[in-house]
């Protein structure tokens, strides 16, 4: 009976942490919704140097940032616990700090520079056509 009780309590706790608190869940795991073809997300003139903002690419939010004249795009929802990266801090070294728990991600490739996040941010290819910033999910071969 004691063993049964321990197993039941452990199962409840594990389910609560993963499904209730979403501990250890990659909050960017919606890759099937990310655009595979370029979609226009913002007029280029509306993204000033050293700024970032949230835009919508199809059904998913994307973080756009302009640093040293280059426009970068990574997933907007932090892979740790879903923080809004556009409300974080754009750092001088080309990284962004999440406002909720301070994870730092590279804008260049979406990799984690500092935790607590362990999963990288999905990265998007960026191009400018007819004055519009366009993004699409980075293709596997380009990573
Ligand atoms: S939600 Fe971004 S670091 Fe926790």
TrEMBL record:
Domain of life: Bacteria
Domain named Rieske: residues: 39-135
InterPro entries reported for this sequence: Rieske_2Fe-2S, Rieske_2Fe-2S_sf
Keyword Iron carried by entry: yes
Keyword check for Metal-binding: yes
Bilayer-crossing regions: none
Keyword terms, alphabetized: 2Fe-2S, Iron, Iron-sulfur, Metal-binding
Protein name: Rieske domain-containing protein
